[in-house]
Specification:
heterodimer; A: about 220 residues; mainly alpha; MetI-like fold; 10 helices; about 80% helix; B: about 220 residues; 8 helices
Amino acid sequence: MTYDFQFDAVFASWDYLLDGAWLTVRLSFGAMAIGLVIAILCALGKTSGPKPVRWLINAYIEVIRNTPFLVQIFLIFFGLPTVGLRLSPDVAALIAMVVNVGAYATEIIRAGIESIHKGQIEAGLALGLRPLQVFRHIILKPALRTVYPALTSQFILLMLSSSVVSAISADELTSVANNIQSQTFRSFEIYIVVTGIYLVLALMFSALFAGIYRLAFAYTIDRR
Amino acid sequence: MIRAFGYNEFLFLLSAVQWTLLLSVIAFIGGGIVGLVVALGRTSDVKPLRWLSTGYIQIFQGTPLLMQLFLVFFGATVIGIDMSPWVAAAVGLTLNTSAFLGEIWRGCIQSVPRGQWEAASSLGLRYPGLMRYVILPQAVKVAVPPTVGYLVQVIKGTSLAAIIGFVELTRAGQIVNNATFQPFLVFGIVAAIYFALCWPLSLLSQRLEARYAAPSR
């Protein structure tokens, strides 16, 4: 048995693939940014909110973390239109990714916030900082620094799991691959190339996150 | 012809759970066996073995699970095997699980203090005995909570088998939804079933972690 590899079909659609990869990148960064804001708010609510708020946030986290991403996508994309909210696949994909990453990031950031010593907060208040300043400078920034590795690997997992949104044909990398596949039938060639693109994206993301770390948290290295 | 969601549809979903569970068990056992080999390679003193297992982990953790399933599914035809979606899903999930469990267990093996290795080898134990009687028993203790936690990821991961056409819980949900067109109800029930499978495991993992984190010395 010999198989005749034909990569021409793949490289003929190279621009199309890059468009798909670009949407994957945009979806990922959009979901990260919005998800991070949601996660910070939820983590704050979970550590210092009133009981009903904490209970609600806990329910959100547990439901999202214990159900598959694919089912969450189906609920949003097929379920919401039945209550009159019609979404394009791209928007539904973004919402699903935000909701998903928000839950995981909340738990990560909460762990960071809880690692801050109480004395630090009291010292900040005693120095006359307002509560918001205390939260920003004394709680949030060091907390984010502590959990940065966990948080960024969660973001990379998010980018990789975005391939699942191809199930509702959002036009990201995997969907593009499916389209090319159905036109050319060079399934293995397409998917091996696309897998390579994902691997490169993952490496680029982790290089970028390492760079951001150096920029954002350099203060601990300079000052002694 | 649109059917109403009734008792039969619910039973169909419930009967699909057995495939989700079977797939999870296969992926977990297969992934555990391969994962142990990967973890041993990753902590080995032999450099090529270390490189090989590091590369293996990097590739599986740096690419989407869905792509891995596609590659197994379509790759089998390339080498001339006609693989059913069922076998492809089992193989793909096993490989993926092995990479993640391998990395988790590497950490557990390395958490055993260096002195234990030195003491064991100075007592004359060679590598197999050293691993079997000294290092692994201590590593297993640390490994249980994250491994139980990872089982949740395995169960959720099996939902992707739906995309390559294997009828497990999520695919059954799609089929029922196509017939009844009540997506909120159908996928709500599907999600609730996954939740009922995963949540107890998550809680167990947290409880075990809290217990092992308590001072043991």
